[in-house]
């Protein structure tokens, strides 16, 4: 009788073990154990609504840009200049266009806006978790310097705005030479961020190419 009970118990344990290892119960308990013991779960995949991006660049990873090859009349996808942010000691390439192809490589210039240095509103944008991950450190009275084929243009940030993602006032015309730089916000938001961090800067000085 005891032998029969032991055989039955072993069978139940074997079947239960197979079921346990082949269902979500195993994953759940594993995750719970890691959480309670403080082990890292960074290896798990995080689902994000934003498209995959290039590896994050540190300040020392600034891309080298040949200023003599900037086109005077850029086409979508062209490398058209560079943005230097003194506060971050960062130099970033600017590409004409704001499609994902351009934003994966650097700062995107909104094709519907004027070129940097011209009167009106020149609009730049970039990803918050790559090139603009430290843009939140830049604020009022900081400088933004844009170098293109037309010359070097120095802007001073006059205003910082936090707006909804669908706020179109970011790209409206301006009465004077303005540089508007935007990225998604909050910076540490997981998924598609609902707002935009916007720097509004006015042209302070320029050195045009003759």
UniProtKB/TrEMBL annotation:
InterPro entries: Sortase, Sortase_D, Sortase_D_1, Sortase_dom-sf
UniProt-listed CDD domains: Sortase_D_1
Source organism (scientific name): Halalkalibacter alkaliphilus
Top-level lineage group: Bacteria
Record's keyword annotation contains Lyase: no
GO molecular function: hydrolase activity
Stored Gene3D superfamilies: Sortase
Keywords for the protein's UniProt record, in alphabetical order: Hydrolase
Pfam families found in the cross-reference section: Sortase
Protein name: Class D sortase
Active site: 127, 184
